[in-house]
Amino acid sequence: MLNNREKAIKRISLLKKHFRPSEDFNRELDGCTFDFELAAKVVRGLRPEVHHQVIELVDSMMKHNNFKEKSRAAMRYKTNYWVKKILMKFYEKGIFTPEKVIEDPDLLNRCTMGISFFGGEISTKFAVQIGLYLKSLKNMGTETHKDALMKAATLEEFGCFCLTELGHGSDVSKLETTAHFDQITNQFIFNSPTETSRKFWIGNLASTATKAVVFAQLIINGVRHGIHGFLIQIRDPETHEPLYGVTIGDCGDKIGMQGIDNGWIMFDNFRAGKKALLNKFADISPDGVYTSKITSKAKRMAVQLGGLSGGRIAISQVSNDCALGVSSGALRYWAVRKQFKSPKTKLETRLIDYRINHFRLITKFARHFIQHVGMSKITEFWNQYLEGGLGAENKMTSFAHLISSVAKSVFTWTTFDTCSESRQALGGLGYSSYNGFGQVLAVMDLNRTWEGDNNILMQQAGKLILQNLQYLFMEKPVMPTFDFLTTEMPEAEPYSKSLDDVMNLLELLTYRASTLIHQTGMKLNFAEDKIEAWDKLLAFNTYPMTFAYFDRFLLQNYIEFLENFSGDQKTKEVFTLLGVVYAQKVIIEDAEFFRDYLTRAQIDDLKETLMDNLLKLRKEVVGLSYLLPFTDKMQGALFKLDMKPYEHFLDFVERSERKANIDIDGDIIIPVPR
Ligand SMILES: Cc1cc2nc3c(=O)[nH]c(=O)nc-3n(C[C@H](O)[C@H](O)[C@H](O)COP(=O)(O)OP(=O)(O)OC[C@H]3O[C@@H](n4cnc5c(N)ncnc54)[C@H](O)[C@@H]3O)c2cc1C
User: Where, by residue number, does the polypeptide cross the bilayer (predicted)?
Assistant: First the structure.
């Protein structure tokens, strides 16, 4: 029988040819009480096998993680190079086919997001080409646009997704770009009437794309029909020059994502044929009459853009993976790094053995682990929604929007926070670019803004949560995950059950979610000026309610995961402990809410229990960090799986000195002026 250490070595050896672990690795893995192989199988099973295949294939293709020492131009060149190389390899190996990508662009989008640690730019470029451009052609286009779909899937044509303008990003109903239909020539005439109507921030636009999906106000005979999507050629396929009537520029330097060519575009009486309209949800008849089954402009826009929220699911996944990877790496480093002698043992203490550090990072690791399990359920919901087809009649539409919005907000906010704490956890060495934090923090920062700014998404999610309360009073069925809600607000009464039991913790989180939903609903209902009240209630009512709903959902889902786990008792205990720590921290952070249920003494006891639980987790957590599907090339220099941080870090530093003017993987020489 292999012990945990040997099982872990066997698994890592599959990814890494010569895995020679340090003594620290041996000690940490020997200390774990759970069954490594079983737990790894369970964690891996949370994702379709193709996710792992993609990571393993890309891992085998890369020489090094691309830590940046490159110019913007070199980064862009490398990004395009790798996107093409990786996709063609997927096709060659049969992991995907162009037809499969067209059929299920969300799957490729999520899989390629999973490789973001090889380079955030590479996965973002896939997201722009597949998750935005190809998917909008699929969702909004018809037979007419089939050819462009195939060219997008094979990368014969690169495209971009032009929604945001300089003046408006969140409120896209106010976009200013116009598309007048000219009935005489049967053409659309595109214009950017103001400076603020310039499409801005558009990925792939500055130098890559020849085609664009452009969102503009459709105007026929002076009548405005709202925002519609159009597919247009923007550059000459031979010369790559912008077409007549199109001006394209570069958005310039950014605080990250240098490998993505974000650009701006303006139109001056640019003409495109009638086929440019992506006409699944609206069309123009041969005699120039506008037709659409969806009568409301707002609904039409929501349906057109709705399917794109799959990008939010992918961002949620990649963010949480990143947080798990980074916090795991920091915990491994802490298991090696020592500072200060213990007055008791007279030996230097490992950073991971300080109790404050348990609180700093093990609590975060636990949350991201619970979110990791939650992600699998959220993806399941998303796939159910897609099965219903896009359109106003799909009953899952509102729920899909709710769950993707709140997941994206919570996962990206918690990830940014975890990355920042992990950077600090590495002390001064965390500031070296070879540990990847510059890139990671920049990307995770961006994830909070694009695909819908988190604050906007929280408002939209809040509205949809409250809709469920209304449904209950109207005796209509509620959305999935709202079974806990009733027309009665829970009575607040002293709670005497154990706070170290995951089911009891769920009970408390259920009271909290249910009470906050009722309280917010009531305040809005009784407000004289509902618009004013909505704005005022966001900070102390709607946001806390939305977080509370999601915290509860995550725990409920995690308990289902535990109930379905059929392995040994010890492994189950460790998994349970993660859930308990997650929920205890949530309750302590919102002790103010629980004051009607829990006395001050109970909260103080809970804090002690949490610290004791963290101590128990301390001996498991480094082993747990190896369960996750991360490969060595994804890790920063200090995070390597063999737990020899100084060796790897110095290797990076020395290589960088030797090759100060050479790209880290030795491919491009960047001339240094002498
Ligand atoms: C690197 C990068 C790449 C991008 N790529 C693309 C792309 O390929 N295609 C594309 O179309 N777009 C792209 N975007 C644009 C991105 O989607 C938008 O920036 C984003 O949706 C936010 O819009 P905004 O910048 O207009 O912010 P704003 O809407 O101006 O928001 C600014 C702040 O105001 C807050 N706010 C706004 N409205 C309200 C309100 N009602 N109540 C309270 N607070 C509010 C927001 O929460 C935010 O914090 C990209 C952006 C970046 C930075």
Answer: none
Q: Where are the beta strands (DSSP E) in 268-395?
A: 270-273, 283-284, 290-291, 338-341, 348-350
Give the DSSP letter of residue 483.
T
Query: Ligand 1: which residues within 6 Å by Cβ?
Result: 128, 161-164, 168-170, 201-203, 254, 257, 262, 446, 449-450, 452-453, 455-456
What ipTM was estimated for this complex? Answer: 0.99
d(CA 480, CA 352): 40
**Residue pLDDT, tens place only, 335-347:** 999 999 999 999 9
- Are the CB atoms for 225 and 282 separated by under 8 Å? yes
3-state secondary structure (DSSP) of residue 273: strand
Alpha helices for 388-501 (secondary structure H): 397-425, 437-447, 454-473
What is the token pair recorded at 206?
Answer: 């500055």
CA of 369 to the centre of ligand 1 (A): 29
Geometric angle at alpha carbon 422, from 347 and 44, rounded to 5°? 100
The verdict on whether 380 is a catalytic residue reads: no
| SS3 assignment, position 102 | helix
Which residues contact residue 259 at a Cβ distance below 8 angstroms, ignoring those fewer than 6 apart? 75, 76, 78, 79, 119, 120, 121, 122, 124, 125
Under DSSP, is residue 479 helix (H, G, I), strand (E, B) or coil? Answer: coil
The rounded distance, in Å, linking the Cα atoms of 158 and 208 is: 6
Q: Which of 214-218, 295-299, 305-309 has the lowest mean pLDDT?
A: 305-309
Q: Ligand 1: distance of its center to the CA of 108 in Å?
A: 25
> Is a pLDDT exceeding 60 seen at residue 55?
yes
List pLDDT tens digits, range 501-524. Answer: 999 999 999 999 999 999 999 999
- Domains annotated for the chain, with CATH where assigned, are 160-286 (2.40.110.10)
**Burial label, 134 (beta-carbon count in 10 A; 0-12, 13-18, 19+):** buried
Closest CA to 332 of 672, 618, 75: 618
Cα-Cα-Cα-Cα torsion 385, 389, 395, 400, nearest 10 degrees, comes to 30
Q: Indicate if the pLDDT at residue 645 is higher than 50.
A: yes
Task: Classify residue 478 by its DSSP letter.
Answer: P
CA distance 164 to 194: 14
Averaged pLDDT, 406-431: 97
Cα(542)–Cα(518) distance, integer angstroms? 11
Q: Write the DSSP assignment of 371-416 as a string of letters.
A: HHHHHHHHHHHHHHHHHT-SSTT-TTHHHHHHHHHHHHHHHHHHHH
Residues 644/22, Cβ–Cβ less than 8 Å: yes
Q: Which of 253, 450, 457, 543 to mutate to test the pocket of ligand 1 (most atoms within 8 A of CB)?
A: 450
Which of residues 72 and 161 earns the better pLDDT score? 161
Least confident of 59-73, 162-176, 324-338, 515-529: 59-73
332 residue type, one letter: R
221: Cβ–Cβ under 8 A, 6 or more apart, which residues?
181, 183, 288
Pick the closest to residue 543 from 639, 420, 458 (CA basis).
458
| Ligand 1 atom with minimal separation from the 132 CA | 8
Output the CA 174–ligand 1 centroid distance in Å: 13
pLDDT digit string, tens, across residues 37-51: 999 999 999 999 999
Token pair for 106:
């969300």
pLDDT band at 27 (very low <50, low <70, confident <90, very high): very high
